[in-house]
Amino acid sequence: MKKAVNWKDVVIIELLKKDNGICQLCNKVLGDQLVEIDHTRERSDGGIDAIDNLRLVHLTCHKLHHQNFKKLPSITYDTLKNATTDISKQIIVHWLKICNGNVTRAAKKLGLSRKGLQLKMIKYNLRKANGTQ
Ligand SMILES: [Zn+2]
């Protein structure tokens, strides 16, 4: 009896190889936690279903990621400066949450140096999440 190929399994195996078994949101080992396939560039933004545009993430990180990012554009701002500050702040808080308050990992996700992120956290008056690090 032939067993049908489960394409999701095939994709997951490819992504495990590509990303070395690391969650592409929190940078921790995927391990035996539940995983999901995420689009690096969202489909709504023109992203396609190709291995290069897919990544494996923890189910919990994935949920948090989409919850937070959905909220962003709905806010209205009076000035560009206020908008930039507020959105920057939200994105920093978002990655600190996903990275469990680990400044080094969050900085990497934000494309900042650790020092750069620390300076922004002081500037935006952000306290470290969860008291870690
Ligand atoms: Zn994760």
Task: Tell me about this structure.
- The chain has 133 residues and is mostly helical.
- It has two domains: 7-58, no CATH class; 75-131, Arc Repressor Mutant, subunit A, CATH 1.10.10.
- It is built from five helices and two strands; from the N terminus they run H-E-E-H-H-H-H.
- It has helices at 7-19, 59-71, 80-98, 103-110, 114-123; strands at 35-39, 54-58.
- It has a two-stranded antiparallel ribbon with strand order 1-2.
- It is elongated.
- The protein starts with 6 loop residues before the first helix and ends in a 10-residue tail after the last helix.
- Bound molecules: zinc ion.
- Zinc ion is lined by residues 23, 25-26, 28, 57-58, 61.
Provide the CATH architecture of the largest domain. Answer: Orthogonal Bundle
Order of strands in the sheet with most strands: 1-2
Q: Which regions are unreliable across 5 or more consecutive residues at pLDDT < 50? A: 129-133
Helix content: 40-55%
Order of helices and strands: HEEHHHH
Main beta-sheet annotation: 2 strands, antiparallel
Which fold name corresponds to the CATH topology of the largest domain? Arc Repressor Mutant, subunit A
CATH secondary-structure class of the largest domain: Mainly Alpha
Which structural category fits the helices and strands? Answer: mainly alpha
Shape: elongated
Oligomeric state, counting identical vs distinct chains: single chain
